[in-house]
Structures are given as C-alpha cells and as structure tokens.
Automatic annotation (TrEMBL):
The gene is miaB. Residues 409-471 form the TRAM domain. PROSITE patterns: MTTASE_N, MTTASE_RADICAL, RADICAL_SAM, TRAM. It comes from Candidatus Ornithomonoglobus intestinigallinarum. Residues 176-406 form the Radical SAM core domain. [4Fe-4S] cluster 2 binds at C190, C194, C197. Monomer. Catalyzes the methylthiolation of N6-(dimethylallyl)adenosine (i(6)A), leading to the formation of 2-methylthio-N6-(dimethylallyl)adenosine (ms(2)i(6)A) at position 37 in tRNAs that read codons beginning with uridine. It holds the Pfam family UPF0004. This is tRNA-2-methylthio-N(6)-dimethylallyladenosine synthase. It comes from the Bacteria. Keywords: 4Fe-4S, Cytoplasm, Iron, Iron-sulfur, Metal-binding, S-adenosyl-L-methionine, Transferase, tRNA processing. Its EC number is 2.8.4.3. InterPro entries: Elp3/MiaA/NifB-like_rSAM, Methylthiotransferase, Methylthiotransferase_CS, Methylthiotransferase_N, Methylthiotransferase_N_sf, MiaB_methiolase, rSAM, rSAM_horseshoe.
Length: 471
C-alpha cells in the first residue's frame, strides 16, 4: 500500500479552507466580488497539473480567478527548476512583483513548486525578495489552505518546503483547464537520478497511485466531458514497482482503454531503460492509445550516456526505436536531447547526430546542458566551450529540422482527426489542435469548434506544424 495522508489531515485542511472561504465570502459581500487569484505555471505538464490542484484548492477557499496580475489579490507562481533559464524567468517576475507590491501592499504573493523545494533557492527568495509572503514546495501543495490561512492571519512570511514523507494526497480538489483534454498524474517523483537532473531532488522518490484511484479519476473526467486523457509520470514505465501487488503501466493503459467515453490516451514520459515488449504490446492492442511515442535519449555517445547514468547504450536505444517502428507503424516518434553535457566532446556529439539520422524522430525537444546545483554533474568541468556547445546545438537543429519537415510532408493530402484546442496564436482567424499522433494542425474554423473533434485535410507542411482545411 502506498502511504496516504491521513483522513484527519485531509479534514484539517478542509477546515482551514472553510475558514478562508468564510472570510472571502465576507469580503465579497463588502466589495461585490470575491478576492481574485492569479496563477502562473513554469515547467512541465506535471506542474500544470499541480496548478490545477492549486486552483481547485483556491476555489474551495472562496477565491475567484483572474488572468491579469494587476487585478489579483493573490498571485501564485508555480515554478520549475530543471534548467537555469526556467529559474531566471521566475526571479525576473519576482523583481517586477516587488514594484507591484509597493503600490498594492495588501496583495499576497506566493512562490511554489520545484524551484523552492531546493533549500538554497527558498533562502535566496526569503533574503532578496521580502515581498514574497508564502513559499511552499512540491510536497506541501495539499497543505495550501493552512499555509495561506497562516500567511493572511499572522501577517508573516510562511515557508514550507519540507522533504516528502512519501505520502500521497488523494482528495485534493482540482480545477481542470478548459477543453476535452485532461492530465492525470499516475505517479509522483523519480528514482533514476540522471546525473544532470534536479527532478528527483525536488520531487522525491517514486510513488505510484493505487490503480483504482487513477481509474476513478479518469471515469470522473469522462463524466465531466473530457475524452483525451494524458497519463503523467517522470518515468511511467516504473509505475507500480512500489505497490504491493503486481500491476504495471501496461495494465493501467489497458484499464483506461476499457473506459467508455475515453477517446484518446496519451502518456509521458517513458524511460528507454524500462521500455519493453509488454508496453509495446499494450500500445498496439489498445485502440485508444494514440500513435505516438516520446522516448528521450538525451545523448548518443555511450560514454556520455554512462556519465549521465542513463543505463542504456546507443545500440540498445536504437534497437528499441526500431522495434517501436515495426510494432507501431506510422506512430510519431519524439525525444529529448541534451547538448553540451560536461564530458561531451565533438566526437560524442557526432553520435547524437547519428541517433537523430537513424531514428528519424518527428519532433525533438533539445536543450543545452544547464548546471544544476546539488547534482553529481555539477561537479564536472565542461570540456567544450560555450561557443562550441552553441554551434553544436545549432547543427543539431539543422539536422532535425530537415527530418521534421520531411516527416510532416508525408501528411500532406491525408485526412486527420483533430481535437481543436483553441485559436491559433499566430493567426487569429485560424484554429489550432492536435491530430492523433500529436502534431499541431492549424486550419480555418469558428470558435464553436473548440473542444470538438473535426476532420481536417492536410494541405501544407511546416517544420513544427501542419496546415489544413475542414472537410
Ligand atoms: N522524466 C522525463 C523528463 C525530465 S525533464 C525524462 O526522464 O525524460 C525534461 C527534459 O529536460 C529531460 O528529458 C532532459 O532532456 C532535460 N533536462 C533535464 N535536466 C537538464 C539539465 N540539467 N540541463 C538541460 N536539460 C535538462
Ligand atoms: Fe530526470 Fe532522469 Fe528522472 Fe527524467 S528519468 S526526471 S531526466 S532523473
Ligand atoms: Fe517539471 Fe520542472 Fe519540476 S520539468 S518536475 S516543473 S523541475
């Protein structure tokens, strides 16, 4: 059995939420509207899903919501620590908040998530940004009602970034994003300790939710009208290893596939070392699992993979990709790559390019290595200059852009079913959505189509997206 927070603790948090809701209802009576909260998310889908929980909690505490920070009585930044630039963005925002707070001293500002789970960052914020009222880490999310109550009533800076005791908090209210798509975290944390990565340090050890909890959440989502389910975990292939019964990720896929009303199932992320035939078979047999596979390889050189503690070789990785291509013909492949890991030489980098050419991914997410305090790789001296790393990074993009465009060209003329997500950012007259293999498709259409599945004939391919017309 995974450890859960106790029913008494859940009740305690409900009581704090009720007290805040009472206060906020009084404020609403006095000024005509409830206090407004504004949330901003930096980071991965798991963080987005956490923000949905934060908004769920805030709603129970009687807050309304605004997208505009200038109208907000409470601003919460949910942060990411995976690369330095993610942290720099937040520090930049905190500087701006400092000025906003001078003119609106009653506004409450909070920073939460992966970044502040690191003690040295929480300390830096406390010292440098006195305007921040509340700091809470990833493991304290469910305690938000109590923390917020303390911040407001005691009028002092509150900080809770204690490490996880391994307990899972079910029963946290969730306010979902609009549309037909929904995230479901099936597990938390990571045990892999890739040497460059901060995630295991800020998210704790792997904890799988009970299968019934996952299935019940999906059923509830279907009742709410959601039909595309994205199952989340840092390494979904490890699902169930910590449970005291025999269940793995392929069992979850099959169980979700059996739920009436679910139309599409996506998942991320798979770790290549654990990716095998059982999962491939489930993907093949489950008709609702989308034809896509995200399998991060990070680097092509066996030496670098070893230094990264990835626990597979280039040959093993490519063999798994070949098997995936054979078993899931037509599925879109994507990956994550890091350029400039400290021990990577130019020769090592050539191996990364070789993987790109052989695997022929549809899409890659590429990153320049970012030194993360507290990780083993942070102690290594880089062998290549920053300039050289940037040159290599640009070469990587060049090689991949040609492959991505070629892969997208093959879609021209096809009719794809697209789940419409919203209005295209680049062209207001266009809608944007994703086809089954997760490619972005832009096409002309009216707003009532948002949240619906439509058939689109692909007319034009770009490197990052497709254009089409409604059929
Ligand atoms: N659990 C997932 C994703 C982790 S974070 C996985 O293992 O694939 C998403 C991506 O960020 C990683 O795949 C990696 O490519 C990148 N990343 C993580 N730490 C990084 C660092 N220190 N510098 C640059 N990129 C990093
Ligand atoms: Fe980070 Fe590796 Fe875990 Fe992914 S598998 S979250 S890259 S430690
Ligand atoms: Fe995600 Fe960033 Fe945290 S990638 S798990 S939000 S460090």
């Amino acid at each position: 059995m995974p450890k859960h927070i106790t029913p008494e603790e859940t009740e305690r948090q409900r009581a704090f939420a009720a007290k805040l809701a009472e206060q906020n209802a009084r404020a609403a009576q006095a000024c005509g509207s409830p206090p407004l909260a504004c949330t901003r998310t930096y980071g991965c889908q798991q963080n987005e899903n956490d923000t949905e929980r934060i908004r769920g909690i805030l709603s129970k505490c009687g807050y309304g919501f605004t997208e505009n920070e200038n109208d907000a009585d409470l601003i919460i930044y949910n942060t990411c620590a995976v690369r330095e630039n993610a942290e720099q963005k937040v520090f930049g925002r905190l500087g701006i908040l400092k000025h906003m707070k001078e003119s609106r001293p009653s506004m409450i500002t909070a920073v939460c998530g992966c970044m502040v789970q690191q003690p040295h960052i929480a300390e830096k914020i406390k010292k440098t940004y006195e305007n921040v009222d509340l700091i809470f880490g990833t493991h304290a999310l469910y305690r938000l009602p109590e923390l917020l109550y303390k911040t407001i009533t005691e009028k002092q800076t509150v900080c809770d970034n204690a490490p996880s005791d391994g307990a899972i908090a079910e029963d946290v209210p969730v306010m979902r994003k609009d549309g037909a798509s929904a995230w479901v975290s099936i597990m938390y944390g990571c045990n892999n300790f890739c040497t460059y990565c901060i995630v295991p340090h800020v998210r704790g050890r792997e904890r799988s939710r009970e299968p019934e909890d996952v299935i019940n959440e999906v059923k509830e989502l279907v009742r709410m009208g959601k039909s595309e389910i994205c199952l989340l975990g840092q390494n979904v292939n490890s699902y169930g290893k910590d449970l005291d019964r025999s269940v793995d990720f392929s069992d979850i896929l099959r169980a979700v596939n059996d739920i009436d009303g679910v139309k599409r199932i996506r998942f991320m992320t798979s770790h290549p070392k654990d990716f095998g035939d059982r999962l491939l078979l489930a993907m093949k047999e489950c008709d609702k699992v989308c034809p896509q596979l995200h399998l991060p390889f990070q680097a092509g050189s066996d030496k670098v993979l070893k230094d990264m503690n990835r626990r597979y070789t280039k040959a093993e990785y490519l063999e798994k990709i070949e098997r995936a291509k054979r078993e899931l013909p037509g599925a879109a492949l994507s990956t994550d790559v890091i350029v400039g890991f400290p021990t990577e030489t130019d020769e090592d980098f050539e191996e990364t390019l070789d993987v790109l050419r052989k695997a022929e991914f549809d899409t890659i997410f590429s990153f320049i290595y970012s030194r993360r305090e507290g990780t083993p790789a942070a102690k290594l001296k880089p062998v290549l200059s920053d300039k050289r790393i940037h040159e290599n990074f640009n070469r990587l993009l060049e090689v991949q852009n040609e492959i991505s465009k070629r892969k997208n060209d093959a879609y021209v003329g096809r009719i794809e079913e697209v789940l419409v997500e919203g209005v295209s950012k680049n062209d207001a007259g266009m809608l944007t959505g994703r086809c089954a293999s997760s490619k972005i498709v832009n096409f002309k259409g009216g707003k009532p189509l948002i949240g619906k599945y439509v058939n689109v004939r692909i007319t034009e391919a770009h490197t990052w997206s497709l254009n089409g017309e409604l059929v």
